[in-house]
Specification:
Layout: H1 9-16, H2 22-29, H3 35-38, H4 41-48, H5 53-66, H6 72-81, H7 83-93, H8 97-105, H9 118-121, H10 125-132, H11 138-157, H12 163-188, H13 190-195, E1 196-202, H14 204-207, E2 217-225, H15 231-250, E3 261-262, E4 275-276, H16 278-287, H17 291-297, E5 301-305, H18 307-321, H19 330-343, H20 361-375, H21 387-396, H22 402-426, H23 437-446, H24 453-469, H25 471-485, H26 496-505, H27 511-522, H28 527-544, H29 549-563, H30 567-575, H31 577-587, H32 592-599, H33 618-631, H34 635-662, H35 673-704, E6 710-716, H36 718-721, E7 731-739, H37 745-763, E8 774-775, E9 788-790, H38 791-800, H39 804-809, E10 814-818, H40 820-834, H41 842-859, H42 877-891, H43 903-912, H44 918-942, H45 953-962, H46 970-991
Parallel strand pairs: 2-3, 2-4, 7-8, 7-9
Antiparallel strand pairs: 1-2, 1-5, 6-7, 6-10
């Protein structure tokens, strides 16, 4: 008798044996039908050994209650006397609710778990065919299939079969099921069966003998006419048989469905005929097939129907599979396929996705298949459709390191075991790790994790996923280093030919040069070589993910040659997680940033500092530049220091731009390009301003000391004044001076002119730093007018002679260097011109339109595509800027918010003021941002400015990547540009030209 307030001894024993609801379990144990089992001392222990004791007990009660009075004693007696049967039955009931349901519906099927012969522990295809032999309709086929599945699951959960063996048994059962379904289809339509020969080719995991519990079974159908039959009629008959086979397996009956049969891997996918002749298959693969289709054919295996026809199909397509790596777009296709898989995962599920997420099963399968395609053309031992067998063959052949292969084998087996147990619970097709605590507990216990199942499961899963995440480093790149470094005598390693093939397949255009760089970087026993051997596998992967891997590797070698002996450099890359990836992105994204870095390699330190890529404010920059100028011995040394700061800051800006545009593992790609464009434009404008200020100070100090005989200011114009400079932009400026009190005007003018000449000379001196070109062509009278004028001279000119375009140009005027008060007075002088009090009259508007139209027709370079020219083309920068400037000149006097030199700010202000509709403002803004980004991209990639997309395919690919278009999508970048600017031009026609 239980003392009130005390738990019964049964309750305590149930808790100890892993039951989470002991009270419910006590009630179930008191069920009358379980009386024969209740006193068995081993039962609780056996239930406690299952993944979910509560689930196992509920399933057992249902099974016992479902027995007839005559059958029940046989079940209970066998359960008490036969430990192997007890472990198998309770193991299944504690793991799979769906199979418990099956046993409750078919209470006699428990007998399929009783036999424990050697053959029963290792069943083959013939055994499964015998198990399905009595099925004579789709319903009985489902029951027989579940009965066989019950035995597979029992061997699995008891550890009799490992994960690879279980997957192979599931594939054999699927093969037997397809054969049985085809037999049913033939029996239902004997006339069709007589007309044709039909072969069923398994693809995917079924073809690879590595099927899941619940998965689509991928197939391809091949048909031929029987002797004397008409081919067209035979194909129609074969199509009817194939469709009936698919329905038998896929349709839901009172016994549910088996699994969907998916024929979408066939030529032309769902748009192609369900059944083709062998000749039609071959013709398609020779002419039209894409790389992914050959990758899929790696796993092709004839499983049902006409054996001779199936063998002929494999013989015909196999040679094409092993030549796929020689196809022209193989590398881009492979990169695109992997990216498409990752991009299609819903964001909310990425962290729980066992198959497709980062560090998931697909990563291993994809990588192994890629290496098979690359090296299998010259090594037939790699021709396996089974992932683990192929991985072992790659290790045996020296294509991957043995230790790495062993780690990946272990990780893959663990992840597949997780996938099996997740699907087995309810026999549903899913690859998501559950979130519910009870589900995680059952999953962990089913994998043998009993101390703290949930914590242990999460820890093991993350550990194995981390191994897989680094598999590209392990599988693809480490063997390349082993091949060149040759530090482990006796280890099988890649031959130079195989290493070259692999580099070529990974996107390297010059594999021989890449191998030379690797040898130079990784050979030897120095600390530098050892650290670089650790870094390079990761870096090579990042290089291969870019548009120009060769440039990335060459750049890394040059930087390492320059800095390899400085202890902080390699320590930075090794210890600062982001630094190495940031460096890889910068070195492989184009010419400009690496050129800037290689002129002063110590700037690589910026890449490891979280704050290092943020633009420095103008005040700090100006303070640094002017201090350096003041310390210098002469003007040349002073400006060299200023230009050195400019080079470093240009690198900082370019690196931040590239990393923000490409994204890294820790920092995803910027989704809004507008702020990135603004940041680049403002940073370069500030940098240009302080460089000019430094050159001005240097020129003045060299001849006049601290005080010039005239007050002097530099006015930024154009994109400089608008804080919208690109990497290749000249600095448009005006120079204004005003003689100091008591100084002769001619002396002041001579001093001002000498300062301007000296500044321009100093900023263009040939050095390793990029020159800064000063353009003063927007001054009054253009190139015919004096380079520098007094403020009074500007005032007189603008009052008497100023043209409309000059007033428009002043919209961008901004004081950038020199005497601040003089600069402010110049802007006050400009305000009535750029923001006229009465707005713009019709004559002035007409003149601006005429000038714009003339510029479009005369200044566009000969042969340039007007739809792709970013500056003067349709819907490009000029279109948007002139439209915004027309609004500013018309309304700027009355609306102060329009008085800004920045195009996007003025456009937003015009929209807020109701002067332009929000949808039109958005269209213009999108076009302006995109055109600016294309210009920036061209400069970053080519190292020289350009106003249109580059013609070189590799350069174009790099521009596309900067803009967010992956491999194979470069054409979309051009089409999107045309679409965006075409819409902008329509708005310009309406707002600017009044069309």
């Amino acid at each position: 008798m239980t003392v009130p307030g005390r738990r019964s001894s049964t309750f305590t024993r149930l808790l100890r044996h892993g039951f989470t609801d002991p009270s419910a379990a006590e009630r179930l144990l008191d069920v009358p039908d379980l009386s024969a089992l209740r006193g068995d001392p081993v039962l609780l222990e056996a239930l406690g050994a299952t993944a979910d004791p509560d689930l196992a007990l509920r399933g057992l009660v249902r099974l016992v209650e479902a027995q007839s009075d005559a059958e029940r004693p046989a079940l209970t007696t066998t359960l008490l006397s036969a430990k192997p049967f007890r472990d198998r039955l309770l193991g299944v009931l504690g793991t799979s609710e769906a199979l418990a349901d099956h046993l409750a519906r078919h209470p006699g099927d428990w007998r399929s778990l009783v036999t424990y012969e050697a053959a029963d522990l290792r069943p083959g295809l013939a055994d499964f065919e015998r198990g399905l032999a009595d099925a004579d309709d789709p319903v009985s086929l489902r029951v027989a299939y579940r009965r066989c599945l019950l035995a597979i699951a029992a061997r699995d959960v008891c550890g009799t079969s490992g994960v690879a063996r279980t997957a192979a048994e599931l594939a054999d059962l699927a093969t037997a099921t397809l054969r049985a379904a085809l037999a049913l289809a033939r029996a239902a339509a004997p006339e069709d069966a007589a007309l044709c020969r039909l072969a069923v080719i398994a693809m995917g995991k079924c073809g690879g003998n590595e099927l899941n519990y619940v998965s689509d079974v991928d197939v391809i159908f091949v048909g031929e006419a029987s002797d004397g039959a008409d081919e067209a009629k035979a194909l129609q008959a074969a199509t009817r048989l194939a469709a009936h086979l698919m329905r038998i397996c896929s349709e839901t009956t009172v016994e549910g469905s088996i699994w969907p049969v998916d024929a979408n891997l066939r030529p032309e996918g769902r748009n192609g005929p369900l059944v083709r002749t062998l000749a039609s298959h071959v013709a398609y693969y020779q002419r039209w097939a894409k790389t992914w289709e050959f990758q899929a054919l790696l796993k092709a295996r004839p499983v049902a129907g006409d054996e001779e026809l199936g063998a002929q199909y494999i013989d015909a397509v196999s040679p094409m599979v092993w030549q796929a790596a020689e196809r022209e777009n193989f590398v881009a296709d492979v990169q695109k396929m992997r990216r498409r898989v990752v991009d299609n995962i819903p964001v909310a599920q990425v962290e729980r996705e066992l198959k497709l997420g980062p560090g998931g099963l697909r990563d291993v399968e994809f990588a192994v298949q890629l290496l098979q395609l690359v090296h299998g053309r010259s090594d037939a031992t790699l021709h396996s459709g089974t992932t683990l067998d192929a991985l072992a063959a790659l290790a045996a052949g020296g294509y991957v390191g043995r230790a790495d292969a062993a780690q990946l084998d272990e990780a893959y087996r663990f992840l597949r075991a997780m996938e099996h147990r997740i699907q087995l619970h309810r026999l549903r097709r899913t690859h998501l790790v559950p979130e519910d605590e009870a589900d995680l507990r059952r999953l962990g216990r089913s994998l043998g994790l009993r101390t703290d199942p949930v914590a242990e499961l999460n820890r093991e899963w993350k550990r194995h996923a981390a191994v897989v995440r680094r598999l590209h480093e392990k599988l693809f790149y480490r063997p390349l280093l082993d091949a060149v470094a040759q530090l482990a005598p006796g280890e099988i390693r890649l031959s130079p030919k195989a290493a070259g093939q692999r580099l070529e397949a990974l996107g390297y255009a010059d594999p021989a040069a890449a191998l030379r760089h690797l040898e130079a970087l990784a050979s030897g026993v120095s600390r530098k070589a050892a650290i670089q051997r650790t870094l390079l596998p990761v870096l090579l992967g990042w290089f291969a993910d870019s548009a120009d891997p060769d440039a990335g590797l060459l750049g890394f070698r040059k930087v390492s040659d320059a800095l390899g002996k400085t202890p902080w450099y390699l320590r930075l890359l090794r210890d600062e997680g982001a630094a190495a990836e940031n460096l890889a992105r910068v070195l492989s994204a184009g010419r400009l940033a690496p050129d800037l870095l290689l002129r002063a390699p110590e700037a690589v330190a910026l890449l490891g500092d979280p704050e290092g890529l943020k633009p420095r404010d103008r005040g700090h920059l100006e303070q640094e530049v002017l201090a350096a100028v003041n310390r210098a011995d002469g003007p040349e040394q002073a400006v060299a220091a200023a230009r050195g700061v400019r080079r470093r800051e240009l690198f900082r800006t370019a690196a931040a731009d590239l990393i923000g545009s490409y994204g890294t593992e820790d920092s995803p790609r910027a989704t809004e390009p507008g702020p990135l464009v603004d940041r680049v434009g403002a940073a370069i404008a500030d940098l240009t301003a302080v460089t000019i200020a430094g050159a001005l100070r240097a020129a003045v100090r060299a001849e006049w000391g601290d005080r010039l005989p005239t007050r002097f200011a530099v006015i930024g114009m154009g994109r400089f004044g608008g804080h919208e400079l690109g990497y290749g932009s000249d600095a448009d400026v005006l120079f204004v001076h005003e003689p100091r009190e008591g100084v002769d005007e001619q002396e002041a003018a001579r001093a001002a002119n000498r300062v301007v000449s000296e500044m321009r000379r100093l900023l263009q001196l040939p050095t390793t730093d990029p020159p800064l070109l000063i353009d003063a062509d927007l001054r009054p009278e253009g190139r015919s007018g004096p380079l520098v004028r007094t403020l009074k001279s500007y005032e007189a000119y603008y009052r008497r002679w100023s043209l409309g375009w000059e007033s428009q140009a002043l919209l961008r005027a901004q004081a950038v260097a020199g005497d601040e008060e003089l600069g402010a007075r110049f802007l006050a002088l400009a305000d009535p011109l750029r923001y006229p009090s009465d707005g713009l009259g019709e004559d002035a508007v007409r003149e601006i339109r005429r000038l714009k139209a003339r510029m479009e027709s005369e200044r566009l370079p000969r042969g340039a595509d007007p739809t792709l020219h970013t500056k003067l083309g349709r819907g490009g920068l000029s279109d948007v800027e002139w439209t915004v400037q027309l609004i500013q000149m018309r309304h700027g006097h009355a609306r102060p918010e329009l008085r800004t030199t920045r195009t996007r700010q003025a456009l937003a202000a015009a929209c807020a003021a109701g002067l332009i509709a929000s949808d039109e403002a958005q269209i213009l803004d999108e076009a302006w941002v995109l055109a600016t980004r294309v210009r920036n991209a061209v400069m970053l990639v080519r190292g020289r400015p350009g106003d249109t997309f580059p013609g070189d395919p590799r350069e174009m690919a790099a521009v596309g990547r900067y803009l967010g278009y992956g491999p194979g999508h470069v054409g979309e970048a051009v089409e999107d540009y045309r679409r965006v600017t075409r819409r902008a031009r329509a708005v310009v026609e309406d707002l600017f030209y009044g069309a």
